Structure formats: C-alpha cells, structure tokens
Amino acid sequence: MASYLARRLIQSALILLGVAFITFFLLYILPADPVRQIAGRSASAQTVENIRRELGLDQPFVIQFLRYLTGLLQGDFGRSYLQKTQVAELIASRLPATLLLMAAGIACELALGLTMGIVAALTKGRFTDQMLMMTSFVTVSAPQFVVSLILLYVFAVQLSWFPVGGYGTFRHLVLPAVTLGILGSGWYARMMRSSMIEVLATDFIRTARAKGLSRARVILRHALPNAILPVIAMIGIDIGVFMGGVVVVESVFAWPGIGQLAWQAIQRIDIPIIMAVTLVSAVAIVLGNLLADLITPFIDPRIKIR
Amino acid sequence: MKNLLASTALVLAFAVPALAQDYTPDPAAKQGGEITVTYHDDVATLDPAIGYDWQNWSMIKSLFDGLMDYVPGTTTLRPGLAESYDVSADGMTFTFHLRKGVKFSNGREMTADDVKYSLDRVTSPATQSPGAGFFASIKGSEKMADGSATSLEGVKVLDPLTVEITLNRPDATFLQVMALNFSYIVAKEAVEESGADFGKHPVGTGAFKLTDWTLGQQLVFERNADYWRAGEPYLDKITFQVGQEPVVALLRLQKGEIDIAGDGIPPAKFTEVMGDPAQAALVVSQASLQTGYITMNLNVAPFDKLEVRQALNMAINKERITQIINGRAKPTGQVLPPGMPGYDPAFAGYAYDPAAAKALLAKAGLPDGFETELYVYNTDPNPRIAQAIQQDLAQIGVKASLQSLAQANVIQAGGEPDTAAMIWSGGMAWAADFPDPSDFYGPILSCQAGGPGGWNWAHYCNKDLDAAAAAADAMTAPEQTADRMKAWSDIMAKVMADAPWVPVFNESRYTMHGPRLGGANDLYADPVATPINFDYIYVKE
Amino acid sequence: MSVALSDPTRPAGPMRRLMRRKLAVLGLVVIGVVVGAALAAPWLVAHAPEEQMFDGLTLQGAPMPPSAAYVFGTDLLGRDLFSRILYGARTSLIIGVVANGLSVLIGTAVGLVAGYFQGWIGAALMRFTDLMMAFPALLLAICLAAIFQPSLWIVALVIALVNWVQTARVIYTQTSSLATRDFIAAERTLGASTGRILWHHILPHLLPTIIVWGTLGISTTVLLEATLSFLGVGVQPPMPSWGNIIFENQTYFQSAPWLVFIPGAAIILLALAFNLVGDALRDVLDPTQRGRG
After folding, report:
1. Does the beta carbon of C57 lie under 8 angstroms from any beta carbon of chain B?
2. What is the per-residue pLDDT for C287?
C-alpha cells in the first residue's frame, strides 16, 4: 500500500510537471507578446526591450521554463505581469471562493443525484424510473451557461429571490451551487441507480428480506450504505470535472474565484497567473483522481490495488 | 518669464472672478460622510508608475499628487505640489518651487529629493513602468532607458524645495506630463519597504490614504487629515467594493445601498434608466476623450491606395453603429474627440455615401471590391460592431472576414507590419492620457509608432506631418497656445486627407450616482480624472 | 440505462434492437429534424442569417420580440433569429461530426498502439493521456484557440485535441485484453503482419466501442463548441453558432430572454438526442460499458 501510494505520488508529480511544461510551451508560442501588454501604448521600443529583459522573456524557452520551475519548487509562483502582485497572493485570495462553490455544488449534486438514483432504483422499470433517467439525460446534455442563465432569469430577474450575481452571502451561493447541482446530478443519479440495483440483487439483501425484515429497514440500513459508498468514491473525479469548467459558471455569476482570474489573465496574456491557475486546477484534478482510486478498494473489496 | 500661478492666482480669483485660473469651491459642499462605490473587477494596482487602466486612474489621483494638476472637472492645468515654476527663455529648463509643509500619508514631509526619486523610479527599467516613454523629453531619459544611467541627468535638486528639470528639446506637453499619474510623487522609504508590493501599500501626498485592501472584496480610502489643500477633500471615507456585477450594482444603486456604480449603466438597463426622469437626473454623461476608429494598414494591398481608404471612409454607416450601442456615442469624422483642444467642430470629414464609395473603388481599379480581414477584440459589443462594419463594407463589394481575438492577440497583430489589414479599435480605443492633441498623434499616427510593436496600426507614415507635429510641440510659450492648437487642427485635417483611419464614433461615458451625492456634474464625468474626481464630490444631507 | 422494452430472450439485429427503444427513436427523430432543418435552411428562411435589417431593431437599438415577421424575433444586430438558429445547426453538426470524428480517430489510434505494443510505447502514450486528463479542459481549449486563431475547422481541431483522451483510455483497455487472447497469438505465430493483425483482427472487435463513442462524443463536442463560442473564442462571427448567438446577445437577456432561451434549448435538444442514441447503442452493441457517463 505504502509503495503503491509512493508510486502514485511520483506519477502525479510527473504529470504535474508535464502539465506545467505543456502550458508554458503553449503560452510561449501564443501569437501575442505579454511585454506589449505590460509596456502599454506609449512605450518606446527601448522600454519594451527593457521590460522584456527585466522579466527574463528575452531568454530561450528552456531557460525561461527552468527558471519558472526553480521558482515553483521554492513555492514561488512569480508576480503577475500586469499587477506586479505575488500570484500566490492573488490565488490565495480567490481560491476560497472557488472551493466554497465547489463544495456547495458537490453537496447539491449529491443531494439531487443520490435521491434521484435511489428512487429510480426502487421504481426500476416503472414510469418514475423512466422519467428520472430521462431527466438525468437532460442534465448531462445541458451546457453550464444555459442552465446558469435560465436560473438567473427565473429566480433572480423574474422572482427576485436571489441576487443576479456576486459573492458574499448565502443567497449569492444558492444559484451557482444549484446550477452545478443540476448539471452533475444526472451523472450521480445513474451511478447511484445501477449501484443500488446491484446491491439489491445481492444475496445478503435477499437473506435480510427472507429474515423478515421490513423493506424500508432493509433498504435504509443494509442496501443504502453499501450502494452509496462506490458513488461517494466518484467525488474525486467530480472535482476534476468541476475544475475543468470553472471558468464558465464563475463568469456568468460574477463569482470571484480562480476561473475569473484565469479568464482575465488569458485576455491579457498574464502568463504567471494563467500558469498558476492551470497548475492549481491540475493539482485538484490529480488529487481528486488519486483520492477516488485510493478510496475505491476500501469500499469495494473486489477491486484490488495493483 | 515668471508664471504666477498658485497663490497669486487665488488672489486674482477674488479680484477678477472671470479669470478661472483655479477652482471655485462649491458653496454647498461640506465635509463629512462616507460613500460606497462598486466595481466588477478587482483593482489591479495603486502604484502610480504602474497603474494604467480607467479604473485605477482616478483612484491613484486621489492618493497621490504631481507637480502639476488640473482644475477639477476641466482640462485646464493648475499647479499641484509645485507652488509655481519658472521656464527659461528657450523653453528647455523648468524650475519648480515646491510647497512647504506637504506631508506624505506616513507623516513625513515631502522634499525635492522625493521628486527626483520618483522621476528616477518611473524611468528606471527595473520599475517596468508603462509610462516611461512619456518622459522622453527629459534630458538623460535615453540613458535611463538603455540602462547606462541610474538617475535622470536632467532632474536636479537645487534645495529642499526647488527642483530643476532640463529637457533635451522644447516640449509644449511637458507640463501635462508633470500632471500625469506616472509622474506622481511617491515616498522613497515606503517604496523601499514594500518593493514590488508598493501598489498594494501606496504612500503619497494625496487627498486620501488607503487604509484597507482585502483582495477581491474591498478597498477603503480615508481622508488624509494632513492634506495640503485646506478644507479638501470633502468625503471622510470611500469604500470600493469589487466583484460586483454591473446589473446588480445598478439595482443596489436604485435601492440606495451604494452611491456610485463604477462600471456605469449596463446596456440592458440603459433604456429603462434614461426613460425615467427621476433616475435620468442622476445620470451624468460626457463624451470621453476617446475616439473609436478602424485602422487600414497601408502596408497591406489595396490599402496602399488612397482612393480605397477614402472609399471605406464613405462606406461606413456610423449612425447605424451608434444605434447598435444604444446611442451611447456620437458619430465622428475626425481623429480628435470633442472636448480635446484642437478639435475642429467645423470639420465634417467624409460623408456616408456608398455610391460615391463604389465609384472611388472603381477609380482605384477595384470595381468588384476585394477581400480583406478585420481584427476585433472579442468582448461585447465589439464583435457586433465589427459585423455591422462588415455588412457596410459588403455593400460596396468589400468582403471582410472577421478575426475576433483576445485583446493581446489583436494588439500583437496590429503591431506587426503586414498582418492585420484592418482593426476595429473598440475596447482598446485610443483614450487620451492627457488633454493635449499631441497624445493622439505621436503614439498612434507618427512614423515612429508605425514600427514593429507600435500602436500605429495603420502603419501610416507622413514625414511632413511628423515635422509639423514636432514644430507644433516646440511652441512652448503660453501666448502661442492658440497657434499651436490651430497647427494641430491642420495636422489632423491632413491626416484625414490621407485617410489611414475610418473614425467612427466618440463614446460617451454614463455615470449614475445616488441622490445623496452632491457636486457639479463635471466631477462625475471628469475628463482627466476619469471618470470621477473623488476629491471634490460630497454628501449632501 | 435500460428503459428498454426489448425482449431479451429473442435475439435480433442491433438495428432492430435499437429501434425498439423509444428514447433512442426519439433521439434519432430529433437528429433527423435538425439535420433536415440545417440542410433545408435556405428554403425555410426569409432572410439570410447575416443580413442586418433596418426594421430588425428599435430606434434605441433594442431587438424585436418574436412576431409574425420574425418568428423567433431578432438579435442585437437586427438579424432574423430563426434564420440564425437554422444556420447555426449547420455549425453545430459540422463541428460535432468533424471534431468528434477526429477525436475518436486520435483516441483509437493512441489506444490501439498503446494497447497492442504495450512496452515503453504503450507506457509513454498512456502516461501522456493521464497528463491530458489532468488539464483543466476548458482552459486548455481557450489557450489552444488563442494560439490558432479560430475558424470553423480550427475550432473542430481544438475540440478534438482536448476530447480524444476518453476514447483512448477505453480503446486501450480493450486492445490490451484482446492482444493477449489466443487467436491473436495464433495469428502472430502464423506470421501475420502487425498491420494485418491490427486491421483485420483487433479493429473489428473495437468497432462497437468506436460507434458508441462516435455517437456519445458528439454530444460532448456540441456542448464544448457552444461553450467556447459563448466565451467568444469559438467560431468567428458572422457565422452563426448556437453558442455565439448567446454570447452576442447576453447583455440583453433580461429584457429579451428569447435570445438566450431559444438557442439554449436547441443546444440541449441536440446534445440530448446524441446522448440518447449513443446510450442505446452502448446497451445494444457493447454491454460491458454500461453505466458510464
């Protein structure tokens, strides 16, 4: 186990190194010069060259990357080209908002998805099941920005129950979290449904029923805990899904998280910020997957760690 | 030739009120009160050497001062930290006499050494200031730029209250540069203490001081009790809340929760607000010192032909384009915006006339039009405006395909000699750094700016006009001002005869403030401290 | 998912089994309608999708609500939204088919090579797919779009470059297990060339998976295209795309919600249709892969 973990951690580190390299390379070949963004409109050619030298952007790609990496290993994400602030500070100021949204979103997904999945499993093959599964299909087929805008229009503009966007109070959190909840619920519902159906078909549930325990008791005390665990293990993967799309939901709801930070940075080629957001997201994705892989064997003894 | 500004001017103001050398305080203004301003984006930096966006521009003006300043709400220069100045007969040496007893917000008294330090700092490559180029007329600036000097040769401290600045050429805009944010005086010890984080911990001599900055949430400015302009500012405290969606900000403003929606009125709400007289009364609109234009790259065929460029000038339906942005702009046919000295109200430019445009194209040997590309910054409403332009061009047979890209990509393409045939400037449009027509020529129309990486995206180069511009800027004596502006009007008219641009419109800025705020409208649409002059607005009740 | 009405006791051809699923048929009908509308667009619309009409805007520059003249209303440039939606279907379908075809192609090639040869090639390829999995997908797509300067085909390419990973992993797993089977070993001892083995003996077994991913993936692709266009980095205007229609009109969505809801519904409907058909295909062709998102 320990050696497995060590191997996975080394693998993860290498993956992150690869992500850093590729992103850095893509930004390097991008047909836009960050120095011109910094130097502004009235800069002379000399000023532009000076700034390029100050930032080390006149160096060959490999040197630039090694420099960045050296900084990174010392915990230094560099300074924003345009704001001159420590990128670590900028990320730290934005990350809580993103994490809060992620936590609330996953909570909503689970609440909605698990309920749908359980009900569908218990009504397997009947109308309710069919409707729920149809719904789950709709949710995985809807783009984030459409659901966000629909919820905004109905609950913020028309009904004025929630603010149109922004950050700070619980009411600000509801709509973006519910958006994520709706979008992710279909995925969880389908996993929960098949997991539940599988558990209900096992011998020990049949034995429990045969012993004369009530249906409700069997479902709540025996089937549910067993069925729910493999689904919970998937949260790790869900973190990856969330991080992959964080730009959209944050931009629609004016949520001051790292997605918005990245979007603004991309517009102006503020490379240290883009790098940092990509890496932070990649770390979350890698850790999420690792977590999922580590938890699964404990929950499902049939899967063995290689 | 001694310029008796400052104290003498104030005395004169009593004697001859018509001589509006300085600001006449609003009699209704009183001190006290707190206001809340909202923005969507976080403030980038408050370092005067770095900050260069419309959001932090006016905030920096409230935290720092320069040697020169503007009369609030106008484009008229007035003395700032310099009480007065002398100019040598050749216009090459300025001697600034500093005010006594001006204190930084950390309590230390400001001296001539701070002026010297601040100018050295902004021109030093290590500072990476986007404004370093503005100081090119100071002697020794080229040595700062190439790194062979660490101190500006032309800036000398004569005594603790006197600074002498020598230029390398006569420069009529020099005093404007001394009023520009980049030239603002910073406290050396604070810069050294905070290093690159000075922008988060600014220390200046301004009307306000920063007391709190919670990244991504809010900034708090409090009144600087030691401020050297007696009785100013009026407000005790300004809270800037960031991360607020413009639509939400407007709703909160309507409910009275906040006082100013910093991002203006969102398009979807514009008609509603302007249709309600009570709300419209709280809206201040003013044409900003900005022109939206299409550049035509003279290096890219067929824009090397004058007829083609003139034809395009006649092909664009500017009325329709202003309609698309809800009429929040006025169509224009010239380079300079109204409100800018040198603007010629009589100059009509090319009238909209697709038939004549087609005839001109035929004359240029292109009766069937041609294919080209139009680059545009990919945020609303710019792609929409570009599509309207595209349709207008199609009317005369010009098929323009769009390249809707991130701002950085468009700027990059514009700087390349022959990449971007046409660029719609929206979102990156030229707004004045200071209210002087030369700022609309040197950086965006001169031969030098047409080189690689420059902002002269038309790559237009007319040596005669470069010479005329240099001659105009050498007219430094105050009595030459009228001639100088006339010269600039002529230069701009000649630019339009060569037609490297299609000037499209001058955008208006609409700022809405809460009913409890007082102060002249000009303070909410300040042409220099865009958009709001925080030092002079006040709370009424 | 098994909202199946099929009778498992009676074997039938995959097509017939597919047609017995109500939802799959519904999906096919929707796809058929969208394809039909996209092809017949020139005959169905009164105005070209790029035509900005003078009477399409109020004097204040506001769009027109749905009416007899403009069934879906007009957009912020005074263009006929109905026409833009129909022509936008072309964009979605072309990108969906091309981008996903490309991504399945890349994914299959990578998975096949990695699964069959294993060794360092396989390890290298699969570590690379792990690496791609760790990228925040949308950020990667936005960066790629910024590098290549988007056109219809570039957007398709960008999406393919981001999306191939899932297919690669599935194909890899299947190929690895196929490669160790006896009949492949037998072929090898008989002296069959690697190319022949891959083409004639392994690929046919992968076909069901390829078909399933080739269908399901279109839904993902349609969504990604819409999202990129919504952020303004997708297909270039004035070419209509359901995503960029929403991007262009978003500022007005409070007073003109149809400008967001109609294209939004179109995106959901098309993505849903491909999901329904793809899922049914999976049940029919490839029962081992059931239950995956």
Report:
1. yes
2. 55
For residue range A68-101, what is the model confidence (pLDDT) as tens digits?
Answer: 999 999 989 999 988 888 999 999 988 999 999 9
Question: Which residues, 6 or more positions from B4, have their beta carbon under 8 angstroms from its beta carbon?
Answer: B84
DSSP character at residue B125 = G
**Which residues on B lie below 8 Å from A38 (Cβ)?**
128, 130
Distance CA B62, CA B204 (A): 9
If you average pLDDT over residues C75-88, what whole number do you get?
Answer: 93
The answer to whether the pTM exceeds 0.90 is no
Complex ipTM, two decimals?
0.87
Measured between CA atoms, the residue of chain B closest to residue A50 is B125
Residue A32 forms contact with B (CB below 8 Å): yes
Question: For residues C30 and C26, what is the distance between their CA atoms, to the nearest angstrom?
Answer: 6
Q: Does A246 touch chain C (CB under 8 A)?
A: yes
C262 min Cα distance to partner chain B (Å): 19
> How many CB atoms lie under 10 A from the CB of residue A130?
18
For A7, A16, A290, B435, C27, the CA distances from A10, given in Å and listed in that order, are 5, 10, 12, 59, 45
User: Which tens digits make up the pLDDT trace of A162-172?
Assistant: 887 777 788 88
Q: What is the DSSP letter of B113?
A: H
The reply to whether A242 touches chain C by the CB within 8 Å rule is no
Nearest residue to B22 via CA among B233, B229, B180, B221: B229
Helical residues (DSSP H) of B150-282, grouped into ranges: 174-177, 188-194, 246-255, 267-275, 277-280
Nearest CA of chain C to the CA of B333: how many Å? 22
Which residues in chain C are contacts of B401 at CB distance < 8 A? 236
For residue B163, report the phi and psi dihedrals to the nearest 5 degrees. Answer: -125, 135
Low-confidence ranges of chain B (pLDDT < 70): 1-21, 429
Q: Are B130 and B199 in contact (CB under 8 A)?
A: no
Question: Under an 8 A CB cutoff, do C146 and B409 touch?
Answer: yes
Compute the 3-state secondary structure of chain B and give helix, strand, coil in percent, each to the nearest 5: 35, 20, 45
Q: Say whether residue A167 is in contact with chain B using an 8 A CB cutoff.
A: yes
Nearest to A247 among C138, C261, C276 (CB): C138
| DSSP track, C162-210 | HHHHHHHHHHHHHHHHHHTSHHHHHHHHTT--HHHIIIIIIHHHHHHHH
Instruction: Report the alpha-carbon distance of residue B199 to residue B204 in Å, rounded.
Output: 11
| Cβ atoms of residues C259 and C270 within 8 Å | no
Residue B240 three-state SS? strand
Residue of C77, C148, C245, C259 to mutate, interface with B, max B Cβ within 10 Å: C77
pLDDT at C8 > cutoff 60: no
A9 CB within 8 Å of a chain C CB: no
pLDDT of residue A139: 92
The enclosing H or E element of B154 equals none
Chains that touch A (3 or more CB pairs under 8 A): B, C
- Check pLDDT > 50 for residue A227: yes
CB contact under 8 A, C61 and B323: yes
pLDDT at B408: 84
Would the CB atoms of B380 and C247 count as touching at under 8 Å? yes
The mean per-residue pLDDT over the stretch C122-128 comes to: 90
Contact C293, A190 (CB under 8 A): yes
Q: Can you tell me the distance from the alpha carbon of B476 to that of B173, in angstroms, rounded to the nearest whole number?
A: 8
Q: Does A18 touch chain C (CB under 8 A)?
A: yes
Question: What would the pLDDT profile of B522-540 be if each residue is shown by its tens digit?
Answer: 898 888 877 789 999 999 8
**Span C157-190, pLDDT tens digits:** 999 999 999 899 989 988 988 888 888 888 888 8
The whole-number pLDDT of residue B67 equals 96
Residue B248 structure tokens:
């939400």
Query: For position B10, what pLDDT does the model report?
Result: 33
Cβ-contact C259, C73 below 8 angstroms = yes
Answer whether residue C3 shows pLDDT above 70.
no
**Which residues of chain A have a CB within 8 Å of the CB of B50?**
83-84
